[in-house]
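Re-run with default settings, no changes from the original entry. Doing this only to confirm the output is reproducible before filing.
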Amino acid sequence: MPKPAPQKMVLEWLRALWRAVNVPLVAVLLALVLGALLLVLSGYSPWLAYSELYIGAFGDSQAWQRTLEKATPLIFSGLAVAFAFKAGLFNIGAQGQLVFGALVSAVVGFSVTGLPALLHIPLAILAGGIAGALYGAIPGALKTYTGAHEVITTIMLNYIALNITDYLANGPFKDTTPGNVVARTPRVLESAQIGSVGQILGVPDSFFGSVPFGFILAILVAAVTWWLLWRTTLGYEIRTVGQNADAAKYAGMKVARTVILTMILSGFLAGMGGRSRHRELSAVSSRALTLVWDLMALRLPCWAKPALSGSFPPLFWWEP
């Protein structure tokens, strides 16, 4: 069978890209127009407002660093929700999984000593991912074995995670530094702090050097997630179950196993996001960390259809 010409492949890729971004682009343009109209009616200059918004987000290297740093956990949360969507699951519990990931990775960051950064940072990130995965397995198992809908169970588990994290951050894991009255964990060790790419490469003053390493990790994880969904047997099973679970079962696929595994992997992505943003995590509090992230994560898959790469663009329009 002859291979398609390179020009045709490029055209098909451009068409797919346009289908993925045309609705979000129109939505952004409409939001800007409506926002400008409201500003004018209120007696303010839209140009001045949007200029300050742009400067605050992209005005210099520090602004870029803040924007990318705050966007990183949203990328992970968006990937988590979008990944579950591919199996027809609504993982509204990304918030709780992210909270547990942040807490566990912080505990590993301040309690495990004697490790070099090359081992301590991956260990903390992995611990956060595993915590999120275990928490994500709960609604997956409940749906499989009891029929409980994941929307209800994940919403309930969000509040459980918030309150457990608040208790631990104000109790067993509270920072006992003299004068501290905030419910937070101790400052993680320097060997577990996620810095910028420049700090790792030894060029902190360069523009690229200000890019948070967590953001680079998010891009790599997004690429691996895409590969898993579209280039592996497991990914094919996940997408098939999402499109028609009965047909997948008739074809011999283990639907129950796929549902649970999808929620585990989705929780793993969210849990990694709990460690990705805060370079020091000296104030892990569920209320401070995640009140808004879950709502944003639910909106990202609207951009991510049909491509997971759609989880990236909207993140730079929002700052907590």
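The two ends are 52 Å apart (CA to CA). Residues 279-283, 290-297, 313-320 have pLDDT under 50 and may be disordered.
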